[in-house]
Design brief:
Structural class of chain B: mainly alpha
Structural class of chain A: alpha/beta
Helix content of chain A: 25-40%
Number of helices of chain B: 3
Oligomer: heterodimer
Radius of gyration of chain B: 23 Å
Distance between the termini of chain A: 22 Å
Largest sheet of chain A: 11 strands, mixed
Order of helices and strands of chain A: HHEHEHEHEHEEHEHEHHHHEHHEEH
Strand content of chain B: under 5%
Distance between the termini of chain B: 42 Å
Shape of chain B: flat
Number of strands of chain B: 0
Largest sheet of chain B: none
Strand content of chain A: 5-15%
Strand order of the largest sheet of chain A: 1-3-2-4-6-5-10-11-9-7-8
Chain lengths: 486, 94
């Protein structure tokens, strides 16, 4: 058993047949973490002892005929999701000692199935960033080339799955934070429809955009994970009441009868030639599988980044007001007035990118500017939503690159926030419209960096995404390729 | 678009952030660059367009008013950097 290529569905079957135990599987994954973590640095907090105890429980559950499909499967969790009794930092100094008194709903769901949590994964501070370089606890490295970013903000979630340090992970996606690192690390990443997965216990960044989703080694695993995560939660009033579906159903249906749309705007200036070549090849694979292909247009795509960099910072400036030095662990104990306590605790606790976004958001919401910025951005958002409504009358799935270029070198864009923001131009629109999106490994750059294909579908059409993604994966036949980590 | 240092300082006060002079300078430049880019939105006349704040057609999300177990006082206070077992302690305000 090679845990670096093992999928959840293969592990689940092997566990069910008694070919291995959860304890054996977890031990191997923990050994793998010991071996490669000094190079990858994907974890903020490792939970090896707790994981072994959960594995023992999982084996007991299985022997009693209990536990779900994820029973005994070693998973990693982005450190923005609350885990009872285990610290949750959001990659920030301000929460360096925060221990949540409760589990997020997604953790309750995983725990009730008997899943094993091997640790909390690195991320950009409060999920703000695209390279995982804004983490107070160090930057993880891309397993395919350690000099390169693994992407962000769910960088640790993608790097750990690619490096064999867990079978799958949870991430969160506000403007591409699951799909972009998945693309850069050669794993599958899914941002479900807004509201599909409960966000109770997810530290909020931008509440009208945030969504939790899985990062996995193949599309079947992504469907299995979403089966375990989705569902209405009375504790999250934005969670959808849409009924339960089995996302693994229909994967084998082929592409006949599906129309894939190629959005012209996603193939514009700035798209690297090698990314375009890989994506065009992927489109040909889907066409060979029986899909109808047509050019489509989402004319307001180019305004997505501008609208996003008002809406997301505005919501963040409000959400992050709670980190005030009073309730959550970090305080400047020398402050002698309440206002100084707020100012000094926040200024010492937050990193530069978080400060930048709080300032931008506060500016955009401040008296006299609200109409020009927040209201205007929210109106443009309506136009982007309309674009999607119109385009899904013509096609079932949108197919495009995830990012205009492969991963960049660590440190390369450190002094240029705007160029980093612009790199998310192809993932942001899905968050603004709330539609589901997925990245599926599609090929490699000349220098060997992974390149993912983005698939997007209408609200609650995740099954169509998985069906198309599965066909791409089967048609390409690049699964099982592993980084050498040398 | 340019943002003055005074504007950055004003916004920082509103956001309860304290910035060093070097930070104010850097933020003024970077915020100016980002807001300059955001001005792209001016290309669109959106006067009659309804703003979107929620992407799904969820209206009021009601539930029965039933008391469920919740955090104990001790659990709720546990992460406070200064607390006395009953409340979070802050510097005197009056």
């Amino acid at each position: 058993m090679d845990v670096t290529t093992l999928t959840i569905h293969a592990a689940k079957d092997a566990l069910a047949r008694g070919e291995m135990t959860s304890v054996e599987l977890t031990r191997k994954v923990l050994d793998r973490i010991d071996a490669v973590e000094p190079k990858v640095n994907a974890f903020i907090t490792r939970t090896s002892e707790e994981a072994m105890a959960q594995a023992v429980q999982a084996d007991a559950m299985r022997s009693r005929g209990e536990g779900g499909p994820l029973c005994g499967i070693p998973l990693g969790i982005k450190d923005v999701i609350c885990t009872k009794g285990i610290r949750t930092t959001a990659g920030s100094k301000i929460l360096k000692d925060f221990i949540s008194p409760y589990d997020a709903t997604v953790m309750e769901k995983l725990n009730s199935q008997g899943a094993v949590c091997v640790g909390k994964l690195s991320m950009d501070e409060f999920a703000m960033g695209s390279g995982n370089e804004n983490c107070a606890f160090g930057t993880p490295h891309n397993p395919w080339n350690l000099d390169y970013i693994c992407g962000g903000s769910s960088g640790g979630s993608a790097a750990s799955v690619a490096a064999g340090e867990c079978l799958a992970s949870l991430g969160s996606d506000t403007g591409g934070s699951i799909r972009q690192p998945a693309s850069h690390c050669g794993v599958v990443g899914v941002k479900p429809t807004y509201g599909r997965v409960s966000r109770f216990g997810l530290l909020a960044f931008a509440s009208s955009l945030d969504q939790i989703g899985p990062l996995t080694r193949d599309v079947t695993d992504a469907a299995l994970m979403l089966n375990g995560l989705a569902g209405h939660d009375p504790r999250d009033s934005t969670s959808s009441r849409a009924g339960h579906e089995d996302y693994t159903e229909g994967l084998l249906a082929g592409m006949k009868g599906l129309t894939i749309g190629i959005p012209t705007e996603y193939f514009g200036a700035g798209l690297s030639l090698e990314v375009e070549k890989v994506i065009r090849h992927g489109i040909a694979v889907l066409q060979d599988a029986g899909a109808e292909v047509k050019e489509v247009s989402l004319p307001h795509t180019e305004y997505g980044v501008a609208a996003y960099y008002i809406i997301a910072p505005a919501e963040a400036s409000s959400n992050l007001a709670r980190y005030d030095g009073v309730r959550y662990t970090s305080r400047d104990m020398d402050a002698d007035s309440l206002i100084d306590l707020y100012r000094r605790s926040r200024s010492q606790g937050f990193g530069d990118e978080v400060k930048r976004r709080i300032l931008l958001g506060t500016y955009a919401l401040s008296s006299g500017y609200y109409d020009a910025y927040y209201k205007k951005a929210s109106q443009v958002r309506t136009l982007i939503v309309e674009d999607y409504k119109n385009v899904f009358k013509e096609c079932d799935v949108l197919v495009s690159p995830v990012t205009p270029t492969p991963a960049w070198k660590i440190g390369e864009k450190a002094s240029d926030p705007l160029s980093v923001y612009l790199s998310d131009a192809l993932t942001i629109p899905a968050n603004l419209a709330g539609v589901p999106g997925m990245s599926v490994p599609c090929g490699f750059s000349a220098s060997g960096l992974p390149i993912g294909m983005q698939l997007q579908a209408a609200h609650f059409a995740e099954k169509t995404l998985f069906r198309a993604g599965f066909n791409l994966e089967q048609g390409l036949g690049i699964q099982g390729k592993q980084p050498s980590l040398s | 678009m340019s943002i003055s240092k005074e504007e950055v300082e004003k916004v920082a006060r509103l956001a309860r952030l304290e910035l060093s002079p070097a930070e104010v300078e850097a933020m003024a430049e970077q915020m100016g660059t980002v807001l300059g880019y955001v001005a792209k939105l001016d290309e669109i006349d959106a006067t009659d367009i309804k703003p979107t704040t929620h992407v799904l057609d969820i209206e009021n999300s009601f539930r029965e008013d039933i008391v469920h177990p919740s955090l104990s006082q001790a659990e709720a206070l546990a992460n406070g950097p200064d607390q006395n077992g009953e409340a979070f302690v802050v510097p005197r305000i009056i």
